[in-house]
Amino acid sequence: MKHLSQLLLFAIGLTVLSGCGSNSERSAGVKAKYRIAVIPKGLTHDFWRSIHAGAESAARERGDTEILWDGPAKEDERSKQQQIVERFTSERVDAIILAPCDRQTLVAPVEGAIKRGIPVVIIDSGLEISEDAAKSEKYLGYVATDNRQGGVRGAERMLELLKDAANFKDSASVKVLMLRYQAGSESTEQREAGFRAKIKTVAHIQLDEAPDEAGATADSAQRVAERLLAGKQDYDGVFAPNESSATGTLQALRVLKLAGKIKMVGFDSSPILLEGLRAGDLHGLVVQDPFDMGYQSVTRALDYVTKKVVPQDKIKHTNLQVVTKENMEQPAIKALFGRDLR
User: Distance between CA 135 and CA 133 in Å, rounded?
Assistant: First the structure.
């Protein structure tokens, strides 16, 4: 009996240990053949959770693939993201998918990966890689929203809101504030540029651009927005170019009792932002399709790794929609933010 008990304990121990491997190892019983590293700008926003879900969906669909998901905790930790890229390069993963925190500081580690023969897909935010690297077969292109057009769509929504609110009643300037996210973030810089260009086509709109950056978190964005909006009753609209800056701005408007009075347009979706839209405290969200971004990037990487298919379209733009309180329950719109990510 004593000997039998020892055997049972040994078997239980083996079962517990076998449950500690990766998802791919648990499902297949062996290590996955292909290892794809997916490195987001940060780990805290719902946007990145959606990219992760899309990447995992593509991996499950293709089979025999493990997604290695790792990134900095916050989106301003450039050196941390560099280290993660370099670590995956040294581990000789089969491909790297990267959303760079900065369009310049991530160039060296990405070009290092390409030189070592590791295919790379850039997602979400552009990177200023060299012409030689861009021409390499190992550079599999850029999968992202058309961010400049996203900024234009945000401005179009703002103009619609201001017109509907009768703010064009006379020749006095209509004032709009735009928060800037973070220098070096190519995606948000493009959104800001698109918003700026479209708003400035209307002569009597005064566009103010915040001297302080919103920063990488909702808390930092809220502090900046409160400082800019406190005591300012003359702003007609405010635009924030990403999830964290939009969340912080919404919170600032509520604290200052200005929510609903100042027309707000943000970028990306989250439960907090969608609740603000339903409540009428927020008046438009330019929403991307991060799930498809993750899915398309992994598909692109596996096509190359398994079949040596070099993408002909080095730039792939994913879906983009403006969500309002009026259209947010439409199936085509809701599909962008209402997916079950479990």
Answer: 5
